[in-house]
Amino acid sequence: MRTYETTIILDAQLEEEMRDARVERYAQFLTDGGATEMTIDRRGTRRLAYLINKRDQGDYTFLRYIAPEPLPADLERETRIDEAVLRFMTILLHPRPLAETERLALMGLAPKADGVVAPSDDDRDDDEEDE
């Protein structure tokens, strides 16, 4: 399972209750499809950079979730047929989960034998050469 973020821009001319119902419907769709650890970030109505379907305002919602691979495509299929959705986009946040040692290596840290995290030896050598 991977971490995804789907951005949905709804028509701002819809009533607030209808927009909330749409967001709840998509969140329920993801949950029913096996998504876990979902967060819903409602950003509200914003001015669009350009007109979309003769609209200059859109209601932005970000859905971040962990899901099996085919689920985001199914969600996009659902949003594509909804006339209230002006635009949508799904991105893969993490192509694959990182092991703890890989994550620490990316941050420039290395685990010690006693479990304490310290800067790696490679980083210390670079500092000594600069002096």
Produce the secondary structure layout.
Blueprint: E1 2-11, H1 16-32, E2 36-52, E3 55-67, H2 71-80, E4 85-94, H3 100-106, E5 109-111, E6 117-119, H4 121-130
Antiparallel strand pairs: 1-3, 1-4, 2-3, 5-6
Describe it.
The mean pLDDT is 83. The protein has helices at residues 16-32, 71-80, 100-106, 121-130, and strands at residues 2-11, 36-52, 55-67, 85-94, 109-111, 117-119. The chain has 131 residues and is of the alpha+beta class. Helices cover 34% and strands 43% of the residues. The chain has a four-stranded antiparallel sheet with strand order 2-3-1-4, covered by helices on one side. It has a two-stranded antiparallel sheet with strand order 5-6. The protein is elongated. The chain has two domains: 2-94, 2-Layer Sandwich (Alpha-Beta Plaits); 100-130, no CATH class.
Any key phrases for this structure?
Alpha-Beta Plaits, elongated, about 35% helix, 2 domains, 4 helices, two-stranded antiparallel sheet, four-stranded antiparallel beta sheet, alpha+beta, about 130 residues, single chain
